[in-house]
Amino acid sequence: MARLIAARRTAVVPRNGAFARLSLEDLAAPVLQACLADAGIDAARVDEVILSNALGAGGNPARRAALAAGLPDRVAGLTIDRQCAGGLDAILLARALIDSGAAEVILAGGVESYSRRPLRLRTDPDGGTPTPYDQAPFTPWPDRDPDMTQAAEALARRLNMSRDRQESWAIRSHANALAADQSAEILSLNGIARDTFPRVLTPRLFAKAPVLTGSITAATAAVAADAAAVCLVVSDRIAQGRGLALLGGASVGGNPEEPGLAPVAAIRRIWGGEPLAQAEIMEAYAVQALAVIDSAGLDPQIVNPGGGGLARGHPIGASGAILAVRLFHGLQQGRGLAAIAAAGGIGTALLVEASGA
Asked: Beta 278-281 vs 244-253: how paired, if at all?
């Protein structure tokens, strides 16, 4: 059984902030190195690097990060794109390779620079002027490919979830993040050693928050951000009882018109309702996180004890891996769960167990 024996991340910084000038490899390479140093694993033993990236221009960022981190030239690097779910899917892929015997030491996670994402142009086959676009299509049907904020509002209406409840969850997320000790999980980069976005939310701030649509405001939606997060996944032979056992994982497709609920099916596939000590659920929107918690039957008290995406921000390709990093540093005993939704109606979940539980 594969095990997670080290996990690190950068701080999450809103776009155009302190990480705005950093390339993808600038963000990811130091985190790769930190994971190996934490575990006492030599770079020569690494079989593969798997990184998620959603907004980059290609060029295999995982390979670039591996080379920048000083890993052997033979480490090819694999970059995947499953949008928001990709960072967690990279860890699931590492688990599968190790459990199959194809590898023993894999660095897996995600990296995103919202600040340095490329400008996109759609060419005209008839030779007309290219037209800019920001979001790639997530389905082949425009009428079933909603804007994510519009989809969140539709979910809030269907579930009759009030703006007050969404704002209460945002207050909790920021308060937990402000109180959390992040020193073990965050690698200082550019002098930034804590997430920079968490704040004390007040009624006045909520009243001033721009309404994005309906009950969704800027205060109940995660901000675009830059970050990297990496986990070191190894075989039992290498782990020798250390770290978190990766008990199960699933990526499940659902209704593309309702992406916020997609993680529920993934959670149900791997979790049978047994007690959990900690759950990390991505908060792209407050309504989305609450809908998953309610529908999956999770205890809200054990969800995101150190704050969530509403307080940190959303570095798309790295967000899923950040959940796993949080579990690694927060789960002392028992079982933990991480889950995330992605555009197109995709949900990914991971179930882990602390050694000695």
From this structure: unpaired
CATH architecture assigned to 3-116+170-354: 3-Layer(aba) Sandwich (3.40)
Q: Is 84 a catalytic residue?
A: yes
Catalytic choice (84, 174, 231, 329): 84
- In angstroms, the first-to-last Cα distance of the chain is 16
- Tell me the pTM: 0.96
- In tens, the pLDDT along 225-282 reads 999 999 999 999 999 999 999 999 999 999 999 999 999 999 999 999 999 999 999 9
Where b means 16+ CB within 10 Å and e means fewer, 163-185 reads: bebbbebbbbbbbbbeebebeeb
The one catalytic residue among 35, 174, 231, 314: 314
Cβ-count burial 198-232 (b if 16+ within 10 Å, e if not): beebeeebbeebeebeebbbebbbbbbbbbbbbbb
Q: Which amino acid is at 234?
A: V
Extents of the domains making up the chain: 3-116+170-354
Q: What letter represents residue 308's amino acid?
A: G
Is residue 314 annotated as a catalytic residue, yes or no?
yes
Query: What helix, strand, coil percent values describe the chain, rounded to 5?
Result: 40, 25, 40
Q: How many CB atoms lie within 10 A of CB 118?
A: 9
Cβ-contact 348, 249 below 8 angstroms: yes
Bridge-based pairing state of the strands 48-52 and 78-80: parallel
Interval 146-186: pLDDT, tens: 889 999 999 999 999 999 999 999 999 999 999 999 999 99
Is residue 287 within 8 A of residue 157, CB to CB? The reply is: no
